[in-house]
Design goal:
The structure holds two protein chains of two kinds. Chain A is of the alpha+beta class. Helices cover 29% and strands 18% of the residues of chain A. Chain B is mainly alpha-helical. Classes of the chains: A alpha+beta, B mainly alpha. At the A-B interface, helix 1, strand 1, strand 2 and strand 4 of A face strand 3, helix 2, helix 4, helix 8 and strand 6 of B.
Chain lengths: 78, 410
Amino acid sequence: MKKNQLKQELISLNNDLYSEFSIQELEQRLETDPLLFVDFFQEGISAAGDTCRDGGTLNVCESGATLNACSAPEALST
Amino acid sequence: MINFETIRQFEVNSLDTSSKEKKFVVGYKERHFEVGLGVAGLIEILKQSESLEEVRKKFSIQRKKTISPEEMEAILNHCIIPILDSEKKVQPKPFLVKYELVPAYMVQKISELLKILFKPFIAVLFMGLILTLHIVFYSSANTVFFFDEFGLLTFVGILALFILSSCFHELGHAAACRYFGVKHGGVGFGLYINFPVFYTDVSDIWKLTRNKRLIVNMAGTYFQLIFLIPVFIVYFINWDPILKYFIMTVNINFLITLNPFFKFDGYWIVSDILGVPNLRQRTKEVFTYYLRKIKKQTINQKPFLFSMKPGKKICMLLYSLVMNLFFVFVFCYLFPLFLYNFFTTFPNDITELVKRLALGETPSFDMLKRLLMQLLFFSFMLYALYKVIRNKIRQRQLRKKSQIEASVTS
């Protein structure tokens, strides 16, 4: 009887260890801001001669220039 | 041996999570621990006690069962000693390189002044203004870039402005901490995977509610948007394409900052929305749990996912799947692809560069940039690999040492 009670207590404590007695170190909260420039290092940025295809989007153009921002009216007018 | 005076330094607060079980955060010497109700209760007893026997008696009353001295020791070794010993262990660093640029006490002087920007009335006013300026900017027909020349001076000017806006971004996180009355660390520079980043240590916000933590997470973007207000005004006066380029670059950078897979602001936002601390680690828990179960290995802790509320559980499961797939894609496709391209093109490019230099020709800026970027990325990869291998060796040595110590003791 006493042995059973002891066993029960031990099982109960082991179960507690899972939840109530859990411990875990929290990760360091480093709020980071990546320093990424949108192809900032390109030689030049020009959209001359490029065609706007998708309105309101940023297109990567094929003719060497890299960033081409098209507004909806521009896309529609081409 | 438990030092009761040291335990009285533990700061225990409720931890806002989506777990059905009550969680607490224990702060001790800049380190934070997630603990269950049992541990929080035990710490309170330890704080009010002078001897281990007193602790055992009080703890027995609290648990409504007799705790033997051996059991008490086992519990203390499991729950309290790891916190006390944490200062001896090095905290895992998320960065390859980390360097504090402005110490906390200096940042605090500025954040104290800027915290006013989080007052609801002021915040709504600024957000309205920012939204209006963006609508006007993007609906403007004149949004195609025409640069006659993009000189070095312009480039340096924009770069400096961009770095300044990033610093202001970091001040946003710090100011939000001050607004909610928690401390923050300094602002620094680091290398995360291969990204150069600015960072602010806001670990103390673990003790805030999830809504407040979310505001701190988004405070950086909010401040960077405020930074754009004068830029917008100048742009609407002189229509300078360089300013337009700067505004769009900052806006696109927000998309990268809000990426939920890398540990940028987006990661912390997802972590707080889901209510899952240590999110990265917990996305692997379920897979590890079932793997150990299949292998019939001992399981020390159930996955956090099992304790989550039903709605959040599905979101967490989806995020875990996407997150793991994303990293499989990065490490099994993008990185090998880069290495393949690097080894096939880099030697030729270097030969070309040497040839041009030998002929007295100036190599193009584009070529130098490409070579430098490839070399930098490759170096970061090698450095990361070296750190992983070094940590594995150290872990193995520590495991062996503890096994030897255990066998000697027994």
